[in-house]
Amino acid sequence: MALESEGAEVLTAASAKEALDLLAWRKPDALLCDLGLPEVNGCQLLQAIRTKKARVWQRIPAIAVTAYDSKQVQPEALAAGFQLLFTKPIDLDGLTAAIAELTQSKVCDLIHSKAVSALGTEHSGAVENA
Predict the structure, then answer these.
(1) Range of the domain at 70
(2) How many domains in the chain?
(3) What is the distance between the alpha carbons of residues 45 and 20, in angstroms, rounded to a whole number?
(4) Distance, CA of 86 to CA of 112 (rounded, Å)
(5) CB-based contact 109:23 (threshold 8 Å)
(6) How far is it, in rounded angstroms, from Cα 108 to Cα 78?
(7) Count of alpha carbons within 13 Å of 124, Cβ hemisphere only?
């Protein structure tokens, strides 16, 4: 994965449910999530994360990724609580800088569920300090 080359540790999840299960035992510093997830879209996943009782989940920085027209999905993504929206193909340098800025960290873990990266690999996830 491209983010690993930038020092991130990457954990993957095959679904939003699996991502939520991973979040039960990991405390991420940020979330990277595709809006076009199957079954549960990225906005719904973020809302599920934000409704958890722990304060950490309400404040987790979140970056949305989409292949859709960003002008159409940006209002929904921002309303769901995403701070940033990246349109595919993703600029890795821009994404890395955004993650570092949001987390104020250069070494990250990335939890993925089904989404799409700059390389066309499907992913979504959460970023945390190693």
Answers:
(1) 2-129
(2) 1
(3) 8
(4) 16
(5) no
(6) 23
(7) 29
Model pLDDT for residues 72-83, shown as the tens digit of each residue: 899 999 999 999
Q: 82 near 116, Cβ under 8 Å?
A: no
Read off the amino acid at residue 65: V
Residues 6+ apart with CB under 8 A from 122: 34, 114, 115, 116
Q: Which residue has the tokens 């209002």?
A: 75
pLDDT tens digit sequence for 15-42: 888 888 888 888 777 888 989 888 889 9
The whole-angstrom distance between residue 108's C-alpha and the CA centroid of its chain comes to: 12
What is the domain-level CATH number for residue 6? 3.40.50.2300
Structural Rg of the chain based on CA atoms: 13
> Does this model's pTM top 0.85?
no
